């Protein structure tokens, strides 16, 4: 089995509509794919309606969190999307995205970059607006050559010249909410240092004690030495190890299935979840 547990669609900051994403996942030879848009489950229905036969969809979301002033992301799998407390928190995070993006546009204007809010809106479309959309605007204007080049301290990285904080959930609270909604929680790309500061291993141990299920170890932002270190940490803390592409369509260079999750780990995730269940494809439209 080939299992990719971290992808994004146009429901947040990917470039493929959900239906196209699942078709591409099947074409890439995946058996299981998780749709984990940022702080939203809006893409799930469209993905399910188009799910090809032979591909199983894991529903999820990537939750925006902050611990001790450091931004981090929590992958939540197979939770009840209608559970009121988790739904309210996701909406709170999403509602803060628009004023945050507008503030980043204003900061860029102050730096002499002629980006407009209308441009960012056009790029985001119906998705939850975020830094990748602002970064894409910088690419369109020729300010940076690629989206990843916008995520530096010169521009949009944490603490960068045009960075603006947004509402982010305390990860201990996020764990409580995900668990109460019957979900499974995995710390996304925990050592992606090129994105900015990362939480220390002592903090990961605290999260493990609070119910964290796993670490996303095999990821494009982790070099081999980092993956080996995280694998050892996960073993020490009794955490599951996952691997994922973090696919965003054409917005990033990663490809579907670039990293995958062991089938035994996937099986354990599905055993732990009680809020929702993986959906096998029946041959979508």
Shape by Cα distribution? globular
SSE run: EHEHEEHHHHHHEHEHEHE
- Outline the low-pLDDT stretches: none
Termini, distance in Å?
Answer: 24 Å
Estimate percent helicity.
Answer: 25-40%
Please provide the count of β strands.
8
Mind explaining what this structure looks like?
With 285 residues, this protein is of the alpha/beta class. Helix content is 38%, strand content 15%. The chain contains eleven helices and eight strands. It has helices at 18-27, 44-49, 84-95, 97-110, 117-124, 131-140, 147-150, 171-180, 201-209, 224-237, 263-272, and strands at 3-7, 32-35, 56-67, 70-77, 184-187, 214-218, 240-243, 279-280. Strands 1, 2, 3, 4, 5, 6, 7 and 8 form an eight-stranded mixed beta sheet that branches. Strand 5, helix 9 (201-209) and strand 6 form a beta-alpha-beta unit. Helix 5 (117-124) crosses helix 6 (131-140). It is globular and about 50 Å long.
Based on the model shown, name its key terms.
285 residues, alpha/beta
In short:
With 285 residues, this protein is α/β, with parallel strands linked by helices. The chain has eleven helices and eight strands. Strand 2 (32-35), helix 2 and strand 3 form a beta-alpha-beta unit.
Helix and strand arrangement:
Elements lengths: L2 E5 L10 H10 L4 E4 L8 H6 L6 E12 L2 E8 L6 H12 L1 H14 L6 H8 L6 H10 L6 H4 L20 H10 L3 E4 L13 H9 L4 E5 L5 H14 L2 E4 L19 H10 L6 E2 L5
Parallel strand pairs: 1-2, 2-3, 5-6, 6-7
Antiparallel strand pairs: 3-4, 3-8, 4-5
Helix pairs in contact: 5-6
């Amino acid at each position: 089995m080939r299992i990719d547990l971290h992808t994004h669609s146009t429901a947040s900051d990917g470039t493929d509509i959900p239906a196209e994403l699942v078709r591409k996942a099947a074409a890439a030879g995946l058996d299981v794919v998780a749709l984990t848009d940022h702080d939203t489950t809006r893409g799930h229905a469209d993905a399910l309606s188009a799910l090809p036969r032979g591909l199983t969809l894991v529903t999820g979301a990537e939750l925006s969190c902050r611990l001790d002033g450091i931004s981090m992301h929590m992958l939540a799998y197979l939770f009840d999307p209608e559970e009121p407390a988790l739904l309210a928190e996701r909406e709170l995070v999403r509602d803060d995205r628009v004023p945050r993006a507008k503030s980043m546009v204003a900061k860029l204007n102050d730096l002499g970059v002629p980006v407009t809010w209308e441009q960012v809106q056009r790029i985001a479309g119906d998705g939850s607006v975020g830094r990748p959309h602002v970064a894409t605007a910088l690419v369109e204007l020729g300010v940076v050559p690629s989206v990843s080049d916008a995520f530096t301290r010169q521009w949009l990285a944490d603490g960068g010249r045009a960075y603006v904080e947004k509402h982010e959930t305390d990860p201990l609270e996020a764990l409580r909410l995900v668990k109460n909604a019957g979900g499974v929680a995995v710390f996304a790309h925990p050592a992606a240092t090129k994105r900015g500061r990362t939480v220390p291993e002592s903090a990961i141990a605290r999260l493990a004690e609070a119910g964290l299920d796993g670490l996303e170890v095999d990821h494009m932002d982790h070099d081999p030495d980092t993956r080996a270190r995280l694998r050892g940490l996960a073993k020490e803390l009794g955490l599951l190890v996952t691997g994922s592409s973090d696919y965003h369509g054409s917005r990033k260079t990663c490809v579907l299935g670039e990293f995958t999750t062991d089938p035994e780990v996937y099986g354990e995730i599905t055993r732990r979840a009680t809020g929702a269940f993986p959906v096998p494809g029946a041959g979508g439209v």
